[in-house]
Amino acid sequence: KKKRIKHDLPLQIGFFVYQYAKLHMLRFFYNVLDKFIDREDYNLLEMDTDSLYLAISKDSLDELVKEEDREAWNRVKCEWFPRTDSEDHIRYDKRTPGLFKVEWRGKVLLVLMLRHISVFDSNSSNNKYSSKGINKTYELSKEEFVKVLEKKNVTPQVNQGFAYKNNNMYSYKSL
User: Fold this and answer.
1) pTM exceeds 0.85, yes or no
2) What percent of the chain has pLDDT over 90?
3) What confidence tier does 78 reach under pLDDT thresholds 50, 70, 90?
4) What pairs with residue 55 in β-bridges?
5) CA 130 → CA 32, 155, 159, distances in Å?
6) Are 156 and 175 spatial neighbours (Cβ–Cβ below 8 Å)?
7) Is residue 113 within 8 Å of 139, Cβ to Cβ?
8) Rounded (to 5) percent helix, strand, coil in the chain
9) Cβ distance 118 to 129 under 8 Å?
10) What span, in angstroms and rounded, lies between the C-alpha atoms of 116 and 152?
11) Which of 29-38, 73-82, 113-122, 140-149 shows the lowest per-residue confidence on average (mean pLDDT)?
């Protein structure tokens, strides 16, 4: 007989956390990016409740801030990004929830179904893969990604994990 896990936490907590995360991302987009940076200088590529992928026209957001808004940017920047003025601030802000941290920089972003994202750098050994809802044991190469996008050639993979339904946890395996 399979083991069961009873999950009886209030759903309101989960809904609040999810909605608050979405609100935080939207506030950042409209109150920070749109306010301080010209839309011609950035392009939002993908956003989720815990990640944001941007294409920017310069090496950093600091370089893109409108000159007339630079003073205001410097005042509010620490509300959205980790401080870099001291080692203590760097260590403390590194683990502070809600601050936007650069996890990876690259030159090419490829997205399949908003669930499978790969960012490639010119150095092929320095790539980032993100797969939501599927196993992370199989990483597509840049060439495989392009093949899927252009020729619709799909490589089937076995996906297995756990699913939560009706206050019970189940394991699954699918092709």
Assistant:
1) no
2) 37
3) very high
4) 43
5) 25, 17, 15
6) yes
7) no
8) 35, 25, 40
9) yes
10) 15
11) 113-122
CA distances from 119 to 61, 116, 123, 127 (A): 19, 10, 11, 6
Query: How many residues comprise the chain?
Result: 175
Three-point CA angle 11, 113, 156, nearest 5°:
105
**Contacts with 150 (C-beta within 8 Å, 6 or more apart), sequence order:** none
Quote the tokens at residue 61. 């957001």
Structure token pair of residue 41: 């200088």
Res. 157: pLDDT tops 60: yes
For residues 36 and 67, is the Cβ–Cβ distance under 8 A?
no
Mean pLDDT of 105-113: 74
Q: What is the dihedral of CA 91, 95, 97, 102, to 10 degrees?
A: 80
Long-range contacts of 54-60 (CB under 8 A, 24+ apart): 55/109
The 3-state DSSP class for residue 27 equals helix
Q: What is the mean pLDDT of residues 118-137?
A: 65
